[in-house]
Amino acid sequence: MTAIIEAQALSRRFGSVHAVDGVTFAVEEGSVTGLLGRNGAGKTTLMNLVTGQDFASGGTVRIFGEDPVENARALTRTCFIKESQGYPDAYRGRHVLAMAERFFPHYDAALAARLVADFGVPVDRMMKKMSRGQRSAVGAIVGIASRAELTLLDEPYAGLDAVARHVFYDRLLEDYAAHPRTIVLSTHLIDEAADLLDHVLVIHEGRLEIDAATEDLRGAASTLVGRAADVDAFVEGREVLGRERVAGISSATVAGLDAQDKALAASSGLEVTPVSLQQLIVRRTGGATTREEAA
Ligand SMILES: Nc1ncnc2c1ncn2[C@@H]1O[C@H](COP(=O)(O)OP(=O)(O)OP(=O)(O)O)[C@@H](O)[C@H]1O
Fold it and tell me: Is ipTM > 0.95 here?
């Protein structure tokens, strides 16, 4: 496999804030990677470093094997769409699409036109007069139609309604299947995007908390519900990610249960359910929680 992005001990400090704190990872060619984390975790900063829009305070990052900073060759193979994208005052939607067509060597204008219709974007309207969702849709259209070898999408659907988000997932997957490329997508809507992702990078307070195949994370934790005494006995000595207790009934989220463990839990009268990717990440980045409520 070829690594399209390689970061080694990459850091970015803003004064005393360690926005990105010594992260090392590789993104493989042709993968769809979710860059996940809480507000302020460092996702945008990391994407800015990967696309050469910011300078590292330490460590290195390479895309296509090269330093991205002021590297026109690497950057014309890269499309970075971010929520906070600014546009010149006089730009209408169609100007943004025309610029994209000029910039990206593999841009497909016919696909962009179809996506404009799918999202219902008023491309003759000034960008500054578009709603937040319409501006996001323009970014999503450029992100998909550019067919850049490396596509980074930073919260590409902020403001998009549920229908438009599903149009985005469907069209992105469809076009990716026909024209494979490397995609990195940051999002807070983890479960919604989970089917799209084959790899997950979770960043927490600037550090890389999880770097794993989505497949390996599915079923990586389970929730056990039952009588408090039974739950307590079962989880003794296991990795507990979170625990809640209401009136003698306990619920515990536990990592690393195999089929035998689950069967044992069930035979002890506990209800066992898999934890979704989103729940797992919330547990991992929110710290183990313990909540007790009286009856
Ligand atoms: N230019 C800057 N100057 C000072 N601090 C900054 C700057 N840019 C980012 N930060 C800080 O670095 C941290 C990481 O910010 P970043 O925007 O990368 O987070 P994020 O994961 O993209 O968050 P969100 O999900 O809220 O968009 C935050 O604490 C932020 O306040």
Answer: yes
